Amino acid sequence: MLGMAVALGSTSICAEANGAAGAELFGKHCVACHQADGEGIPGLAPPLVGALKKVAEADLGRTYIAHVLVSGMAGTIKTRVGKFVGVMPSQAALSDQELAAVASYVLSTFNDSPVALKAEGFAALRGKPLAPGEVRKLREQVLAQIGGQ
Description:
By secondary structure, the chain is of the alpha+beta class. The chain has helices at 16-29, 31-34, 53-56, 59-71, 96-111, 119-126, 132-146; strands at residues 9-10, 73-79, 82-88, 116-117.
């Protein structure tokens, strides 16, 4: 198994301030590719809407989400709207708290998920980054585990 599950999430969203920070960070770092509505850009960036709720419910899924932000992801993926070939750049320049805020924003806003990722989980993964291609393989493991795409 590529990624060991890390205690990343809880089911209680911390504070509205964290949501506002996540929205601001999403607007600054993610919206150019994933769009303000989270629907992505065909052929460039996959949609986030409805794509992560079931993923976030699994321990390994939360680890995968965190690795995407910490390590980036590269390679071909298939989603409900088609195939994407490209690179998601690492967002490791953001602090652990900022990564947790933006991930939790994406989960709550675009996936109606009560899961909030914790800064401590991102901190733990920084010491064990994966190559972007390995993150894509981790995605495949998660989808096989949860029975999704």
